[in-house]
Amino acid sequence: MTIRINDPDKQAFEQEHEDLVRRLAPECMVLLRNDGTLPLTNLQSVALYGNGARQTIKGGTGSGDVNVRHFVTVEEGLEKAGVTVTTKDWLDAYDQVISAAKKDFYQKLRQEAKAAGQNPILATMGKMVVEPNYQIPLHKGTDADTAVYVLARNSGEGSDRRPVPGDIKLTETELRDIVELNKTYQHFALVLNVGGLIDLTGLEEIKTVLLLGQLGSATGDACADVLTGKAYPSGKLTMTWAPIEDYPSTEGFGDPNNTNYREGIFVGYRYFDSTNTTPIYPFGFGLGYTTFKVSPGTVEVDGETITVNATVTNTGSAAGKDVVEVYYSAPQPDRSLPKPYQALAGFVKTQELQGGQSQVVSLTFNLSSLASYDQKSSAYLLEAGDYALRVGDSSRSTHIAGIVRLSDDVVTQQLHAVGGESGFTDFVPSGPAYSYPEEAHEIATATVVEIDAGSIPTTAVSYSDQPAEITRTEPFSWKDVASGQRSLDEFVGTLSDEDLTYLCVGAYKDSDDLMEVIGDASTTLAGAAGETTHQIEGQDLPVLTMADGPAGLRLSQRYTLDGGKPQPLETSMGADMLSMYSDEELAAMKSRATDSARARTVYYQYCTAIPIGTELAQSWDDDLVQQCGDLVGDEMELFGANLWLAPAMNIQRSPLCGRDFEYYSEDPLLAGRIAAAITRGVSRHQGCATTIKHFAANNQETNRYFQNNNISERALREIYLKGFEICVKTSHPRTVMTSYNLINGEHACNRYDLVTEILRDEWGFDGLVMTDWLVTGGMGPSGDQWPAASAAGCVKAGNDLTMPGIPSDKKDIMDALSNPEHQYSLTRATLQQSARRVLAMILELTGAENQD
Ligand code: BGC
Description:
Layout: H1 12-24, E1 30-33, E2 45-49, H2 74-80, E3 84-85, H3 88-115, H4 120-124, E4 146-152, H5 172-184, E5 187-193, E6 209-211, H6 219-227, E7 258-260, H7 269-274, E8 292-302, E9 305-314, E10 323-329, E11 343-349, E12 358-366, E13 372-374, E14 379-382, E15 385-392, E16 398-406, E17 410-414, H8 439-445, E18 448-451, E19 459-460, H9 478-482, H10 488-494, H11 497-503, E20 530-531, E21 545-548, E22 558-562, E23 565-568, H12 575-578, H13 583-599, E24 603-604, H14 613-618, H15 622-639, E25 643-645, H16 668-683, E26 689-695, E27 708-710, H17 713-720, H18 722-731, E28 735-738, E29 742-743, E30 746-747, H19 752-762, E31 768-770, H20 791-797, H21 807-818, H22 828-851
Parallel strand pairs: 2-3, 2-4, 4-5, 5-6, 7-27, 16-18, 17-19, 21-25, 25-26, 26-28, 27-29, 28-31
Antiparallel strand pairs: 1-6, 8-9, 9-12, 10-11, 10-15, 13-14, 14-17, 15-16, 20-21, 22-23, 22-24, 29-30
Keywords: Hydrolase
GO molecular function: hydrolase activity, hydrolyzing O-glycosyl compounds
Protein name: Fibronectin type III-like domain-containing protein
């Protein structure tokens, strides 16, 4: 039941949600270095510097931005904690430097876009001002003995990050100031307010570095809690940190037309370990305010289920939590199916452990979940031999717990080939892999447990047939379906081709102005990104409202009602996107809003920003993430959103991807489990569901609507689809959003093999699939090789809904119905099938509401 809040003051739920985020956030922070400087207990005053100190970033830009009432900056958080900030002059001076730089930057972008005849928002989406160099005296008037430097970076959809000073690398000014402060102050800590990799080359002498990240509404409070020791960090990296040149994905990244995923399955630590390339910080790494020892215990098997036991002991004196990570190294009898040195098999976060306290943990998984995909036979295969199980608390600090020996090869799943051809052979590591001094001895003396190949079943898949047409029926009211008197099939039989088409194109507007439908295309929920159709005449068909994420709900903060319909008083676009408008344009928008507000009651929708995706995953804690999903679900129920366009769970293939901050990890198991946890949290709420996105391989923002990824079927299945598979199979998400990009020459949303054969037939997904926004709209810049996606192609592929729904989508589908020569010619039965899925989801998510 939607609540309309007409009280501008902070509501109780806002405070509760903010408190929750503050309590959970320290578990997402990763302590990278500490020489004992942290925690800064009894901190009275601090010399605070850096671009993130006052201009703190709570989360990136674009659709993933959340319009909060207020969020706490680092400066504010410290002051609220009673700490005096002694460097106001420096912070004031920096404000001036950056606001001048931003003004110039956006003005130039606006002019360029105008000269090129492009829409300024579209042409410049996600472009960030590169941090300028400047001279601001560091020590004027400060008598603190402690300095904290907060280094921030921002990014967002539409643009990628750049391997240059001021983005991935530090500027000369930053390097100079950080080194100087470290020398001058008795205590010094570097705090990273970033959403992804930052190259710390040149800062080797800095001994205390906290990856604060971007934690949403409570960023500054949580930072103060951890700096002063009121709370402790317990996150672990979910992406390997290494010099940008060392990632195999860096070569060729950003090509507007084609990206070749030549590294195949060797993504992230799978690459660094298998090629013995030393990272700066390995996957799974993170310190605490105490130390831990993880001692491998026994390995047990029951059928094909493996249990690995371990004891974790807090070997220091402060309280803390650790993460126990289990990795496996699979046998490679003749190396015809190359495997990484190791891959994650399971993980668990400990409870809080006091100094000296221990906890025994058990991690369970099936041997078949460790199978590799053999393209030659289109099957998941477990090769006979020894599976070494490694236990530790980072990918580079494990010990052998035991060996599982498989008597014979087993085909765990017989599938058929999908995904098309990449056009090249994947990379295979040739040199020695990473090792550690005791490894050979540990393997030689490990306990071996045997699994009989006969105990592991082979599963087969039955792929869909073409659907049969639903017979035409005399019209009747949707209410009869909602009340259970008539069936959905019968209702579908009443619909004309045109109505079926409307159901498959979102909230269709007779407008060619794409800006009217970007990110703000709902007339039911102010500021929501989109909704399903209103065009079915004579039927009071409910609509499904869709609001963005993944760092909370993105809605307009204020709206009024006009004839019962919400009218946003401001756009739900975030502040950075609004920078693209001139002062005059902004003033005009504001005065329109004020006139309308004067006339009517104003309602408020202040949402909470939760930590960005990467931070949530860095907690390695399914329960914590589920709680955040629950928080979002609460706000969805309150404001009336059915679908949350989140979680975003693409693999972090390259640190250069501008949306990595929204994503979880370079590892599919971790990404899948975190997405499943947040899905469970949201699904606890009546009428609310997640939309897992962007399916699949949305790993680059440059030219994102027209960018083709060439990927082998094996890498696609084992890396880029695996997280989605885990999420679908374990948490029953109700909707999926396909990605903009092409895969091996065809748009993801137009690929029948991806959307129907893999998602539905192989994994059993029984919900609704929608496109990403305007994938069919021919939005620029367009590269010069690939066409826009087709709405008819979407229906044919089983991607039911083209969002947000524009006139050319309707035309395309209607043409495909009547023209057998259309590239994606359609039968009425196929169209009925997609329309039926849209209706089924409307019924599922609004059913209870209708019966009230
Ligand atoms: C983004 C999606 C988002 C959609 C709706 C697109 O630009 O890629 O992640 O959900 O807009 O705002």
